[in-house]
Structures are given as structure tokens and as C-alpha cells.
Amino acid sequence: MCLFEMGFEEKAIKLQVKEEKACERKKICLHAFTDLTYVAPIVFLYLLKECYVHGNLKATKKFRALQQAVHQVLCNSPQPGPATFVAYCLYILPIFGSYCEGFSHLIVSAFHRFLKTAATTGDSLEAKIIAVRLFLDIIEGSIDHDERIAVKILEVFDIKLTDIEKVASQSKAKNDRRFHNVKAFLEQYIFGFIESESYMTAVNLLEHFSIRQSGESFLVKMIEKKQFRAAEKWATFMGKPMLSMLVQEYVDRNKLKSAYLIVKKNNLQQEFPVVHHKYKESALKKLAEKACWDVAEAKANGDRQLVEYLVYLAMEAGYLEKVDELCNRYSLEDFPKAQEHEAIFLQHCFLNLNELGVEDIIWVDELNGLGKATCHIEGSKVVGLDCEWKPNYVKGSKPNKVSIMQIASDKKVFILDLMNLYNDVPDVLDNCLTHILRSPRILKLGYNFHCDVKQLAQSYGDLECFKCYNMLLDIQNMFKDPRGGLSGLAEKILGAGLNKTRRNSNWEQRPLSQNQLEYAALDAAVLIQIFYRVCDHSHTADALDGHNKIEWKSYIVSHMDNPRKSRKECRLRKEPEPEVKDNEA
């Protein structure tokens, strides 16, 4: 019997098939999804496979399209009924080999959607019997289906323990002792999943059959194996005592967010009054470690206890002006003064400007200062570059404009107020920075500076100075897998890191605080000292990634506006190099 006689109509799909360098166009007969009265499940599955194999969409889109198609099919009179048709399809699918698992999920999910809209299938009783037999054949091993499909079959056909016992009674007549106690047989089957650490499957089955024999040890085992979703589902099924046990396990393991969410979801505030506060403190600490002080303050939401904890974190980080700011804003008169806790901060060893040999920090926000800064920088052989901008915590919004740019020489650090200079003397600013950034005589040092350049170009798009650069050496690229950012690299090479507590402060406020100025100056000045130490190769070979000496010249890059060259960063070849010797310190 041909396909057209079984209710199929022809749809042409053009396929490019390479056979001996020639393309052949083929046609596949696809079902019109209008009448399944005389279509057997095996034929339907074969055509479904052909649709998938020869479709030209990506796998995910093909899956969704075919899922919709199967859903429509179930509304078009499959015989002897939609539920039975699906059950037979699931019985047959293992013969399709590698397509079995994916198509099983596809058909089950389509059937699940169908059941949401259909008043009744009319064949649910017959389909359930077939589904139970299929499930028993799966757990016996005579039908090869994935364990997750077995669970889905139980769910979508609403198979209960009594349904299995009824069908299994037919096997008892044949003296099959395995089914004399169906519940015990299922428990043994589920225990196999527990032993193989397939915890989610085990939990799904235990919950489906309302088996509550496993207890605390099972919960702890799942947590130890980091199967948290399974543990939470199991505890929810078991009830309040198990949920309380899970919360305590999370608290003991410092998983405070997970504990807090369970307490909130299951109304356990009375049993765990401290969890909420501990979670909030943990969240504040993480934000403080990222220097997101404004966000941390917003999260505290005026809660005095949380604000005091935030003050303590600021003290611990050495952010003493933040301590005074919070104490003044929230009238914390009884709170110990910041100076009394300064000793705590002094226990941390961070670099300072004196150790780096910096003699002066110069703020540049007007024409004369910009000219003097440019003259000094153009007389330098090596400079360090960095920039700062106010963080923007609104998700999806654009970053704020770059506020300042730091340029450090051996003894001085110039901090350019880009926002004011751009407003007052944009042409002069553009000319001065063009001379500096494109000079072949000045080696410019940065750390992950291509991101800064991108931000500068976005902030000041009409300036030409940030579109090209010459003689740039990104210190980050000289080390494999640098950990801890610039501070971590400084600690590795110079023996002490940088205090990064102010990196996310308000860089648009004027005037900047002295601590902000020192922070900004350090980020640029430390690059020069790291460079000199690497060139001098007086540090240990281990700190230099196993090399006695890093050939830093090979890492110099430039990005010049030349149509004949690639727009990407390229290695410098013809431009003259600065007169910096490897042993110059």
C-alpha cells in the first residue's frame, strides 16, 4: 500500500545531498496531519524520524516544531485513541536506536500538552494497562528505555501502585515470584537508583508511589553529593521535620541563601528566626568583598543591625571614610569610632604610594594643567595607564561615562578629570591624548586595558584619541592565568597587593576624597613597578611562570587607523621601541 492511500500528501523538501560532488534533489512524503484513522504507530514514527533527519533547522527548533506537529496529530483521530496511540509509540520507539530517547521525550511532552486541553481521551483505561506493562518491561530490562522516560510514563498516564498490582496479578498466575509483593519489588528497583546515585530519579519514584521509608541518612547523602534539587524535593515531600533538617544542614554548610529560600517558601520563620538575618549578612559581605558598597547599603534597607554589620565590614576593609559616612547617615552615635578599629586594618599588608616611589599626585581639570601634564608625560619613556568610572547597578543599562584617566610616570601620577576637560576644552584634550597614546617613543602600560579603551571610546565617541594607540603593553597578557586581578599580580611580583575597597565608589563626585585619589594613583603607578621588576628579573623564576626572563617586547601591540592593516591588535614591528633596557630599574 502506498503512502498516499494511507492519508499522506506530498510536500516537497529540497535536500542537498552530495554524491560524487553532485547535488541531487530528493522529495520526502510527509503526512498532512489531517487523518490518522489508518496510520499505524510504526509508520507515524518512521515519518517523524524522516522529518527530523532531513529538516534544515537547528535541533532545538526542530524539536519544538515536531512537538507541535505531534500535538496536532493527537487531535486527528489516532486509533484506537490518542492515549493508546502514544503508549504503542513508546513501546515501539526502542527499535529506533539513538532516536529513541529524544523522540520519547518529544511524544510524552506533546501528549502532556494534549491532556491539558482535551476533556477526555476516551481510551485512558486501555492506555493505562499498556503503559503499566511498558513500565514493568522497562524495569525488568526487556524494553530499553531511559530511566527518566520510565518516570514520565508513570506521571503522564497517572499510574498508581494499585494499577501496577492489578496488571502484575496476571504475572502471578504464571508463577512470577517477583510480583508477589509489588511494593517491595518497586522499592528494590528504586534502591538501585539510590546506589547508583541517580537521586532525582529515585526521589521522583518515591514521591510518585508515596514511599516514605528512607530518612535522614538519605537526605544527608544527597547533600554530600551536591544533589540539592533532589534533596529539596525529597524534604518537601516528607514534610516539615525533614525540611527543618534540610535547613539546618544548609546552615551548617554555610549555604545561607538556600536555607533562607526554604524557610521563606515553607513558612519556617518561627523555627529559624536567625536564618534570614544570617543570609542578609552573608549577602552584604559578598557585596563588600566586590566593593559594591552602595548596593550593600541599599540591601540593608535601613535595618540598624545590618547597617552596623556593614560598618564593621567597612572597618575590616580599611574603608574608614565609608565608616564615618554610614555612622553619620544613620546616627550611629554609640557605635565605636573608625579610628579605634584602624589597627584591625593595619594587619592587612597593602601597597602604598611611598613604597612605589610616587612623590606627587596631580589633579588636572583645566587647560594649563593639561598642558603641563602632557609635557611631563611626553618626556617619559614608560607610563602606566588606568581609568575609573562610576558603577551602574541597573541591569541592562549602559555604563556611565569614564570619569577620570590616570597616567603615571616614575615619580608623578596625573589624574585627568575627563568629564570637565571634555566639557571645557575637548579639542585640546583630544590633541594632548592623541600625542601621548600614539607616540612611538612612550611605552604605555595597562592591565586589561583594551576594555578601558573600549569604554573610553564609547564615552567620548567624537574624540579621535581613543580610536588608535601605539606602543601599548598589557601587563595581563604577560602572565598565564593571572589570579586575583591586578592586586593578585602585585602581590605575586611585589610582595603585597592593592586595597580594592574603593574601586566601585562614586568617581563622579567632586572633589574626590584623598583616599580615592590615592587608590586611583596606585592602580597606574603599580604597573610601572611590576614592569621594572619583571624586566630586572630579580623575582623568583616561579613567580614569572617558570621563566627566568619574560620577553616583554613581544607583547607590545598597536592599533593604528590604517586601512591597509587589520583593525585588530597587531604586533609592533616597524615602529621604534623606547629606550628601556632589560636591566633598567
- The poorly predicted ranges are 1-32, 342-347, 538-548, 562-585
Q: How many alpha or pi helices?
A: 24
Largest sheet: 8 strands, mixed
Measure the end-to-end span: 90 Å
Using only C-alpha atoms, the radius of gyration works out to: 35 Å
Mean pLDDT: 82
Query: Strands across the major sheet, in which order?
Result: 5-8-7-6-9-10-11-12
Helix content: 40-55%
CATH class of the domain at 353-539 and 554-559: Alpha Beta
Please name the fourth-level CATH homologous superfamily of the domain at 353-539 and 554-559. Answer: Ribonuclease H-like superfamily/Ribonuclease H
Structural class: alpha/beta
Bin the strand percentage: 5-15%
> What's the shape?
elongated
- Which CATH architecture of the domain at 353-539 and 554-559 is right? 2-Layer Sandwich
Determine the CATH topology of the domain at 353-539 and 554-559.
Nucleotidyltransferase, domain 5
Number of strands: 12
